[in-house]
């Protein structure tokens, strides 16, 4: 499985932007970059995914490096409800989602 | 977005009993569902892939005779933990993907917290 590397934890102040990095130096040409997050005591929820171009949706933005070896999930204005574990995942044609350790994001009021 | 439900949300049982957990896709049909297990402070671990109308595919190290999976319809998969023991206490989460491209988003259930006494 292609692997990703994320910081164990990050902190951010409420109402400020948050940039969550992910390194995936062994990414293959057909791997999509997915982000999921898991709020406390809940199942994970989809955040965003992309292949080569930057992506925006109502939850976040995904910035993908030109060589695709890294990406950054951007929360434009963090709220307390964004405190969660964020997982950066590579997926190919295979359905399976394999979770790494993720980044635990703490939001300070 | 699509909704996946699980029942029960939490269950407490005695050691040696069997527990069944249901996973339902409420507004879409899912030929494939997935089962995960999560211990406290750890990440999710994929246990098995549940295929409608055929046998489940188990990940390495997961005992298929202990964790029985039945995907009898396009909206329901069940996980039965047989002869449960305290070490089986965990947070069990299912997920399902609506028909379409494999790399599209998956939807996860809210999880079932199993406590074996």
Task: Give a structural overview.
The complex is a heterodimer of chains A (109) and B (117). Chain A is mostly beta strands and 109 residues long. Chain A is 0% helix and 46% strand. Chain A contains no helices and nine strands. A five-stranded mixed β-sheet of chain A has the order 1-9-8-3-4, with no helix packed on it. Chain A is globular and about 40 Å long. Chain A starts with 8 loop residues before the first strand and ends with a strand. Chain B is mostly beta strands. Chain B contains no helices and eleven strands. Chain B is globular and about 40 Å long. The model of chain B has no long low-confidence stretch (mean pLDDT 93). The chains are: A mainly beta (109), B mainly beta (117). Chains A and B meet through β3, β4 and β8 of A and β4, β5, β9 and β10 of B.
Distance between the termini of chain B: 37 Å
General form of chain B: globular
Strand order of the largest sheet of chain A: 1-9-8-3-4
Average pLDDT across residues of chain B?
Answer: 93
How many strands appear in the DSSP assignment of chain A? 9
> Beta-strand percentage of chain B?
over 45%
Question: What attributes characterize this protein structure?
Answer:
heterodimer; A: 109 residues; mainly beta; 4-stranded antiparallel β-sheet; B: 117 residues; 7-stranded mixed β-sheet; 0% helix
Give the arrangement of secondary structure elements.
The complex is a heterodimer of chains A (109) and B (117).
Chain A: E1 9-13, E2 18-23, E3 32-38, E4 45-50, E5 55-56, E6 61-64, E7 70-75, E8 84-91, E9 103-108
Chain B: E1 4-7, E2 10-13, E3 19-25, E4 32-38, E5 45-51, E6 57-58, E7 67-73, E8 76-81, E9 90-96, E10 107-108, E11 112-116
Parallel strand pairs in B: 2-11
Antiparallel strand pairs in B: 1-3, 3-8, 4-5, 4-9, 5-6, 7-8, 9-10, 9-11
């Amino acid at each position: 499985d292609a692997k990703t590397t994320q910081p164990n934890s990050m902190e951010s102040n409420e109402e400020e932007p948050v940039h969550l990095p992910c390194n995936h130096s062994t990414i293959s040409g057909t791997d999509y970059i997915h982000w999921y997050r898991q709020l406390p005591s809940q199942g994970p929820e989809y955040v965003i995914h992309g292949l080569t171009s930057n992506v925006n949706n109502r939850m976040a933005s995904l910035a993908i490096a030109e060589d695709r070896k890294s990406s950054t999930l951007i929360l434009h204005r963090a709220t307390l409800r964004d405190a969660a574990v964020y997982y950066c995942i590579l997926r190919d044609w295979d359905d399976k989602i394999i979770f790494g350790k993720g980044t635990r994001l703490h939001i300070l009021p | 977005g699509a909704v996946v439900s699980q029942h029960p949300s939490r269950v407490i049982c005695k050691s040696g009993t069997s527990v069944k957990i249901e996973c339902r896709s409420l507004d879409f049909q899912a030929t494939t569902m997935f089962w995960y297990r999560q211990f406290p402070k750890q990440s999710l671990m994929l246990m098995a892939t549940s295929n409608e109308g055929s046998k489940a595919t188990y990940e390495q190290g997961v005992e298929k005779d202990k964790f029985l999976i039945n995907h009898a319809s396009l909206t329901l998969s069940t996980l039965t933990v047989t002869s449960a023991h305290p070490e089986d206490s965990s947070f069990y989460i299912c997920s399902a993907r609506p028909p379409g491209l494999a790399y599209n988003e998956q939807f996860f259930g809210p999880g079932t917290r199993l406590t074996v006494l």
